[in-house]
Write a structure and sequence with these properties.
The chain has 18 helices and no strands. Helices cover 81% and strands 0% of the residues. The longest helix has 38 residues.
Amino acid sequence: MKKSLLVGAILISSLSFGQKKNETSAAVEYLNKFVPALQKKDYATAKKSIVSAKEFIDLAAENPETKESEKTLYYKGAIYLGAVQLSNEAKDNSVLESFGSKDKALSASAQAFQQSFANGKKFKSDVTERVDNARNMLVTEGQVAFDEKDYKSSASAFGWGVKFKESIGELDSTLLYFAALSELNAKEYFPAAEKFLKLGKAGYDGENSYRFAAMSYREGGDMLKAEQVVAEGRKAYPNSKDLLMELVNVKLDAKDKAGAEKALSDAISADPTNPQLYYIIGTIYMEMGENAKAEQNLSKAIELKPDYIDAQYQLGAHYVSWGTDLKKEATGLKFGDAQYDVLMQKSTDTYKKAVKPLETYITANPKDASVLYILYQLNINLENPEKAAEYKKRSDDAKK
């Protein structure tokens, strides 16, 4: 009886050793053969050893005794990642045939790292190091693709970088942003929207992330979701001009001009004494080409806050732009058209309005050469040669 038990124990121990041997053999193939060969750029040896390492680690990962081992999982992650690294360096995709595909290899690697990281402490630092290596590799890959305007490839590379960092419990907001931006450029609007929204909720460049999320839903044609995202974003960033503008864009794209006007009216009704809000709405009306409403709101901002220098500048710039448009409209008429004199007078009157706010602005910012030059041009148009000469000199001096 004792002899039988002893034989059984030896048999069990032998089987256990056999399974552990696959784990060890995989580590030896990877560390002692693949890594040195890759460092020496001996790609033939590296390819042979990484395929051999995969065979061993797959056996260990399938066996009940070792499949949950943090060591097995770590080496599975490292080996599958190594195949992608070799493929990239050698510019040879044939090594990935044994791993299914590049995406399958990356998926298996990230998943194995995640399980290893969760299952113990011994390999946590090793997993973290390999994950950071994967991130660096994928960032380089993504940047090259983005620069080449291959946005689908850059979205994939940056997206995988995000997944690897998630495998150790970290959100890589920067990579998530670039993955979303790549998808937006690739016109993959809904995946982009989900990523931007995740960033907004996480507080990463929150105002812009919510805006890009709404924009992506709008570009994808989901106006309801776009409006919901804007509403969520404006709760966190109530004074955001860009989010309010995006709401207007949503309404306009939905052919709802009345809704766009109501959105602006509701914003004012909710905070009727906020000069910044009038400034924002005035700027939005400028972009919409609603000149009179832009003038009204920017003037109201200054009425509420006379020393609101940004509003003074914006109102002056609006008048200059408006006056120039009127002048262009006049010069585009046929010779002898009676509207020519009317439009030219309106242009002159509008230019005159620009002087006061811009002079108020330049008093606070006396070295702004571009505004000094605009004042010079205004006075030329208004036939004030002495003033024009003064502002021309000040502009030239400010540029020195």
